[in-house]
Amino acid sequence: MRTSIPSPPPSWAQFPIGPLTVHAYALCIIAGIIVATLILSRRLKRRGIEPGFAVDIALWSVPLGIVCARFYHVFTHVGDYFAPGDNLWNVFAIWDGGNALYGSLIGGTVGIWIACRRAKVRFWSLTDALAPALLVAQSLGRLGNYFNHELFGLPTTLPWGLQIESTNPKFPPGMPAGTLFQPLFLYEIIWNLLGFALILYLERRFTLQWGKVLAAYLIWYGAGRSYLESIRIDPSSISFLGVPANVWASFAAVALGIMLFAIQARRHPGAEPSAFTGPSRVALRPSQATEEAASISDIDEERLKTSTPR
């Protein structure tokens, strides 16, 4: 018998709670937002920014990110929504899946810029704090694709091939039932978590600031996503030179990350003087800053003790 990854029962994709229908995809996205906010809060405190500012960021960036993610997906898969007989209301059916990460980055970036400008927080400090957290959030969000039986790749005979029912709308016509597919959602989860660990290491090892952590995120995610999109069973319907739009977007992310890193390394070779551009309502109070510095000092002292030969 061939080993494989079974898809969850279709009933797991949604379930009723009273008059409401709860979608597993939405729960995964919400879980990602919550975890990313918690990670961001911790990283903001180390930069002297009130941890609660992470909630302000979420209130601006999440709605804009979700809206842009949905419309980016719709307009790169126009054949799924605007063919004759299609229900145009499906354009807004975000609970059925179909949210493009690159769209969410565009909308989320606008939200972050607005929040930072209002609070006088340095944009690069915030994006550097957020970038690793995004990879964890994206990993949790990809579980929603698993529950929705979507985001799978070309047929495979590998032992971790994904089972997809032949009645699935994205199942390739003419292909025999029982065909296994590349589990792209799983590949991306693994890639994102590896990137999370690697970027944290690089940030600490080389003291990355001034947007360089964000640059590392763009390079890592774009490189991995470019390959995954190239073996996707339902690539974006818009293409240029035979290459799907999402692959071009991935190449653009890598190029942007490289340019950002090079420009910021040249313009800002030293450390950031502060995470703020002026007096801010979200700065840690002096007592909080002292406690945080003492806490970090205690941790460093304890590490020194444990690492000193006796």
Automatic annotation (TrEMBL):
* Primary localisation category: membrane
Entry EC no(s): 2.5.1.145
Renumbered to this chain, region (Disordered) spans 272-310
PROSITE patterns documented for this protein: LGT
Positions of a 1,2-diacyl-sn-glycero-3-phospho-(1'-sn-glycerol) binding: R142
Q: Where is it localised?
A: Cell membrane
Q: Which UniProt keywords apply?
A: Cell membrane, Membrane, Transferase, Transmembrane, Transmembrane helix
Q: What class of enzyme is it?
A: transferase
Q: Does the keyword Membrane apply?
A: yes
From the record, give the transmembrane residue ranges.
20-41, 53-72, 92-116, 123-141, 184-202, 245-263
Question: What's its membrane topology?
Answer: Multi-pass membrane protein
Molecular-function GO terms, alphabetical? transferase activity
Q: In which pathway does it act?
A: Protein modification; lipoprotein biosynthesis (diacylglyceryl transfer)
Q: Outline what the protein does.
A: Catalyzes the transfer of the diacylglyceryl group from phosphatidylglycerol to the sulfhydryl group of the N-terminal cysteine of a prolipoprotein, the first step in the formation of mature lipoproteins.
Say which family it is in.
Belongs to the Lgt family.
Q: What is this protein called?
A: Phosphatidylglycerol--prolipoprotein diacylglyceryl transferase
Which species is this record about? Microbacterium panaciterrae
